[in-house]
Amino acid sequence: MSSGIRVDHLMGDLPENRLRLWMGIRKQIATDAMPPEEDDPLSAEEKETIINWIDQGLIAVRSRVKDKNGSVRRLTVAQYRNSLRDLLGMDDDFTDILPPDAISKDGFLNNADSMLLSPVLLEAYFDIAEKSLDAAIVDTTTPPAIQKFRMEFGEQINTEPYPDKLILGANSHLLPNTDFVVKETAPEKPFPYVHDLMTTEYRFIEGYEGNATVRGWREYDSIYHSVFACMRGDTGYPKGEAYDLVPEGLLLRPAIPSIEEFQVGSTYGPKANFKISLRELPDHGNFRVTVDAAKYDDGLLLERRVPEFPADATDALTVTNLNDSQTVLVPEAGVYQVDIHPTPNENKTRKRLDLSLGDRRFSGELAQPAFLLVRLDAGELNVKAKLADDIPLVRLQMTPIAEDTSLFREFKQFESRAPLLGVHIGLRRDCGSTLVPVNEPVSVNSTELQTFEFSGAIRNFPRPDVEKDNVNYLAGIKEIGVQSEYTDQRDRPRLKLHSVEFEGPYYEQWPPKSHENIFIASDHQDEPEIYASEIIHSFASRAFRRPVAEQEMSSTLQIWKEAYAETGDFNQAIKESLLVVLTSPQFLFLIENSTSPKPERLDEWELASKLSYFLWNSSPDAELLKLATTKRLEADLDQQIDRMMADPQFKQFLSEFTSQWLSLDKLDVVETNRKMYPNLTRQVKLYLRKEPQQFLAYLFQENLPVANLVRSDFIVVNDVIANYYGIESDSESGFEYRAILHNKNGLGGMLSQAGILAGLSDGKEANPIKRGAWLARKIVAEPPEDPPPNVPALDEDLTKLTLRQRLELHRNQKGCVQCHTGIDPWGFPFEEYDAGGLFKSEGDVDSETTLPDGTHVASMQEFKDYLADDRVDQVAFSVLKHLATYAVGRTLTYNEIEFLRENAVELKAYGYRMQDMLRFVVHSPLFLEK
Known about the structure:
The protein is α+β, with helices and mostly antiparallel strands. The chain contains 27 helices and 31 strands. Strands 2, 3, 4, 8, 9, 12, 24 and 26 form an eight-stranded mixed sheet that branches. Strands 7, 10, 11, 22, 23 and 25 form a six-stranded mixed sheet that branches. β5 and β6 form a beta hairpin. The chain starts with 18 loop residues before the first helix and ends with a helix. The mean pLDDT is 90.
């Protein structure tokens, strides 16, 4: 009764929903945990009789044939979004009004039993379908309106700057208008269009004159009141100046992320945070941002890290009289250290220094004479240096660096790196910005200007929601952010930004592809009813993921006829008929029809859909549908699995499955103690959350054995994560994830991944209960029973006790011990990791444990060895169980689970390789039968 279960109320026929409970009872009796200590123990004969009776009952259950009767399950939000995108051929996402899917007990979002269809949800589907069709279908008789502008940068580039001093709110460091130009250039298109020029005349009742806020109507008339160039962000760049202007552009150092949380740290965004703030962007449609940029021919700032060279070095070049530009002859090309000496009484003064070497500019704080490492060509060099406040400089010394020195090697590494260009779009807030990246950052490897393009759908990015005609000067400001992205603390050359160009809506053709996907080519375009029938048949067949039935076709065409008869508008009538298609069960649900309760093979169309929503999380493509049409899909199954795993859409499976299987959303909600874990920033969390997905992707890509899930000599990381783990690697991948050997205690496999472990904490202290329960459920598929109600939390006031001692007090409470017997032993090895998910390299850590099967392990490494060697069968079974549960979209029956357990051994000879296990699931009757 301590767990609230009465055995005398259970039925002896072992129904399906009580099998796990009976298996638990068997285990309790076999281990003498039942009856409880206060009751009389069972005799050996009674114990054997009960266990044999339960075993016979379980055997009888396995002989039952469970009715199949097909299945019906709703598309998840992600599946619905992806299906709409692929069907309509456009990226605009209108699904943000949908509520999130419910999480099943198995941890997945696609479980048919938890995917209800409420009237509110159905109403949202109608709204989304209407907006999507309105965006996809255009009026071909009206030319599109296209907005395009270009901003160019350079010191004194604007020969006719706007005379008024502009302002854009708190901490908005506006670039001087002399240093940038805005032009509304007309796009070159092969079709007629309207150039949509931005509004320049405004009238605000709350505006600005200089830095003063004014009340009362103010009138403005300039493109420079519509488009601003600013460096809004946190102040206090740690090394050098965050940005500089040179004649050929704007120089940007890496945008170091800030905490960006109110009352915790700066909310204004990363340092070196360049934004184009503007009043107008299109409401919908695709856009393209084009950036002309280059890697600056930069020098490495030294600050206090190296000693200065002797003032009388024989091979040094010395320049005096630095009040004026000087010309010096560099005798030999190479890497030089530049030392700058102020007057003796100013040696300890830390001031900004501006240095020009030829046409190159360098700036930073002069903290010591040794200022810069730079590569110089042989020949004449113009030198100019100026210290802030006009403090006199005595001399400048340039000393060649030998190639066999560590300083030379450091500079070689520095100049081999490239800045990473990233574009972001969002909105301005009073205390910062809300921005979302556009595509992945790109490496800028050349010192010659290159053109980089970034594109997306404007609706999918944050937008300021303000009432129409708001008369506040700062209301409704959109932003395009351009950054030299920050990965880790390693120095890299600056990004030279020459221009940024925006075009939207962006059309490669007119009518757009989304329109042509619906209004297909036909010889009957002059015969409305026949053409409408062809359009509906084509669209509905793709939407239903099978040939449209005659009755479905007839009823949908009738809707078109009635709408067309009423309005005479062909396109509008098509919209109304396709609206029915997009809100029909045939589109919103995955339906597997069955003619009897007996197991039946999926038909080819059902197989195409089931396979596609498993491996791509979206609708089947043309090749899958073609194979289904010719009834060759099942015969070609292995080839299609290979093709689908190699396709970029496989990432959609990896993202959804990994996140749901491993409960990665826990990292999103845990509130980390920033004083204790200052390095676990928002940016680091973002990439740590992706690490398990990238790790699993690598295991699938290389078809590696499942033991790598718990123990591996490699990790799959980018520079951000490597820096968080404290790994000094020659790998410089930027944001790209790569497999590298870690050679570090405490790393390797998913059990050591910081994103998982940090999510399984309270943000301040590691939690072995959460981590143990997670491992039992997700990695070894031996889930503990649900806890009884009203269990008290750990007492944080027992500060003199270790966490293990506090747990022992907790588990000894009535009703707690049985659950914790199946949790705590799995969790104690994780005590080697702190709440930030990092290995504790110092201090005493009590991670010893005796596991439920009696095995004793003394450390996490021993624990990993135990799982990867002794329990690899169970780890593989857990992966197969979760893969199969996700693949079929429902909780597995007892017989199905036993089928996996018994038949998976055929994969053992090859180490339970990841691709092999996925193929095993797809070829199993669990997947192929309905």
